[in-house]
Specification:
107 residues, mainly beta, two-stranded antiparallel sheet, 1 helix, Ada DNA repair metal-binding domain-containing protein
């Protein structure tokens, strides 16, 4: 494992060292990575300091999986639609709803 002159952060009571953007890092002290290894600290398994870039690379979504905004349903834009539920008599419910499920509070 190649160790570079990188600044990592450790907590007062923790046994691991982190990058500055790690979610598990609350209060911290800046320390050199060589000093952290000399103290017996191990790398955080979430942020993985010292192993490549400190921030995770974003994933690329294929273009054929994208849905155009015009093709989305009316519920996502906040428009009211007629409830998709049926009454006991078998007729369609007349209430309007904005719920994503397409059903009113009663159905």
């Amino acid at each position: 494992m190649a160790v570079h002159a990188q600044t990592v952060y450790k907590t007062r009571t923790g046994a691991k060292y982190h990058v500055a953007t790690c979610g598990y890092l609350k209060s911290s002290f800046a320390i050199n990575i060589q000093a952290a290894l000399a103290e017996g600290l191990t790398a955080c398994s979430v942020c993985k300091p010292g192993n490549g870039p400190a921030t995770p690379q974003p994933t690329v979504t294929p273009i054929n999986n994208l849905v155009p905004a015009a093709a989305t349903s009316g519920e996502t834009r906040g428009e009211s639609v007629q409830c998709a539920g049926t009454t006991k008599a078998g007729a369609r419910c007349r209430r309007l709803t904005r719920a994503a499920s397409g059903r009113c509070y009663q159905h």
